[in-house]
Design brief:
The chain is of the alpha/beta class. It contains 7 helices and 7 strands, in the order βαβαββαβαββααα. Strands 1, 2, 3, 4, 5, 6 and 7 form a 7-stranded mixed β-sheet that branches.
Length: 210
């Protein structure tokens, strides 16, 4: 069965494909000829993930899932959250500027607790119809979409360290470790990260119901 993952991020694609194949063929936006930069205008991670998945289902008629991720810092009331990629303003995705702003706002705070949270939205009418036909007794609470969440707790370091990864990886130290995601490297991060946990929940559901 084919599923579209609403991204062109090659790192995300590789991780997802390793988990879901060969049972599912995972297509990227590029694979279906989608060149649109889908706007993330939601106020929550859930809304942004749904916007992207809904766009693909509406315009291409394909079963699709999408994700959105935010860094939530306790001492900052959950900031930057849904605005993580554009925390420093401008056009967004300026990791250096985002980390600089975060460290500046936490400079005088002892509470460094934080968490990364990923939400995956699955919109798959073809798959859900298949499931309903296969087992008419199976209850599906929402036949329009399903959500899967992954969380990794940790803390914000006093300064950046490490060269791997992307985004806030150089300043986020996951619980149970003394090194940042950027120091631990992608192999470790992909095993314990928020996205990996959300994807694993998606994979377990897909494999159970396929």
């Amino acid at each position: 069965m084919k599923l579209v993952f609403a991204t062109n991020n090659l790192h995300k694609l590789k991780e997802i494909r390793e988990i879901l194949q060969p049972e599912f063929e995972i297509l990227s936006l590029a694979d279906i000829g989608c060149e649109t930069d889908i706007p993330e205008t939601g106020n929550t991670l859930e809304e942004n993930a749904l916007i992207k998945a809904q766009f693909v289902e509406k315009h291409y008629g394909l079963d699709c899932f999408a994700d959105d991720t935010g860094l939530e810092v306790e001492a900052l009331g959950g900031e930057p959250g849904v605005y993580s990629a554009r925390y420093a303003g401008g056009n967004g995705h300026d990791s250096e500027a985002n980390m600089h702003k975060l460290l500046h706002k936490l400079a005088d705070k002892d509470n460094r607790r934080a968490r990364f949270r990923t939400v995956i939205a699955l919109i798959a009418p073809t798959l859900l119809t298949h499931i309903a036909n296969k087992d008419s007794q199976r209850g599906i609470e929402n036949n329009s979409h399903l959500l899967f969440e992954g969380i990794v707790d940790g803390r914000i370091a006093r300064e950046k360290s490490g060269n791997e990864g992307f985004g806030y990886d150089p300043v986020f130290i996951p619980e149970g470790f003394e090194k940042s995601f950027a120091e631990l490297g992608m192999e470790v991060k992909n095993r314990i990260s928020h996205r990996a946990r959300a994807v694993q929940k998606l994979a377990e559901w897909l494999k159970k119901t396929s």
